[in-house]
Amino acid sequence: MVATAATSSFFPVTSPSPDSGGAGSKLGGGPANLGGLKSKSVSSGGLKAKAQAPLKINGTTVVTSKEILKHEDDLPSPPPRTFINQLPDWSMLLAAITTIFLAAEKQWMMLDWKPRRPDMLIDPFGIGKIVQDGLVFRENFSIRSYEIGADRTASIETVMNHLQETALNHVKSAGLLGDGFGSTPEMCKKNLIWVVTRMQVVVDRYPTWGDVVQVDTWASGSGKNAMRRDWVLRDCKTGEILTRASSVWVMMNKLTRRLSKIPEEVRQEIGSYFVDSDPILEEDNRKLTKLDDNTADYIRTGLSSRWSDLDINQHVNNVKYIDWILESAPQPILESHELSSVTLEYRRECGRDSVLDSLTAVSGADMGNLAHSGHVECKHLLRLENGAEIVRGRTEWRPKPMNNIGVVNQVPAEST
Prior knowledge:
Elements: H1 2-10, E1 33-34, E2 37-38, E3 56-57, E4 60-61, H2 65-74, H3 90-111, E5 121-122, E6 129-131, E7 136-142, H4 156-173, H5 185-189, E8 192-203, E9 212-221, E10 227-235, E11 241-253, E12 259-260, H6 264-270, E13 298-304, H7 318-327, H8 331-336, E14 337-346, E15 355-363, E16 376-384, E17 389-399, H9 402-409
Antiparallel strand pairs: 1-2, 3-4, 5-6, 6-7, 7-9, 8-11, 8-14, 9-10, 10-11, 11-12, 13-15, 14-17, 15-16, 16-17
Helix pairs in contact: 4-7
Enzyme class: hydrolase
EC number: 3.1.2.-
GO molecular function, one term: acyl carrier activity
């Protein structure tokens, strides 16, 4: 009997359906048989059924087939088994893979930023690296298509921008960048900024589209209250020197806009990064003469500074002055010659909404026969409308290579 009851619990007997004869119908023509035990019938005269105690066999409670069926009816039916819901949960797998990759990337970022050689400090952001005992900063640049001109070479503005970018990244990589444009933390406390007073650039060859150039820069002391910064720009593939540049910088109070001495706190902050070396270029001591309306050969007026010309120190970026100087350079020189050197003396800062005049005087050249004139020298002046000097300059030009001249001559003339 125990075996029969246990078997009935695993293989329940199907209960009669409501429309198979009502409560008085019997399964198999007789009363329901639970393993040889007869259940009491329920009277049909509206009388209440007597409560039935749990069935026990040898002291063990036995679950009847009716109770099992009632319990199964209360449970929600599982969805039908199909090919789709038998597949693994791909979202969980994808989440696990993503977590693994993120963890691996984090470990990679944190592991190997230490220098592999004692003479090289690698910037964790991939901007550049500090070499030669931490005193020289090196950075590579790829010449983009929008950085070249009509003769398929990089412009002088491109070269100057790369020099400036390298100088700022040098300060940043050395951990000296405060809340300013190249200002150190001590300079920020005293409202001091760097301003350039003199810039000298010599270009031996201009890079072309797709070239990768390598720029080295370092800083040195210059007198008691100035700093000198030098650059060397090379062809990254051949090591050929393309450009050399040297500049002198002084400090200015950004609130009063007056020049300032270098405070002792700032000197201690930056002094350990100075290189004891001679300038990369021999200084051109020739005096830059002042031009006026009578001595200038070409004058371009009405040049105005725009909001996009300002840097975060709220004055025109020094590279913009090169563009304004060339505005008054004669077109025949621009077409047949390329700029080989430039020397600039910055006299005054230029702010927003300033209107300037650009003056140029050509010396030692026959403008009607530039193709056979060889090198050409020009003098320049940028001034405000009221006559105040902004920049004095000198440029030297050499004939362009013949292939570049041919390219320029292929540019279609403007239709009238």
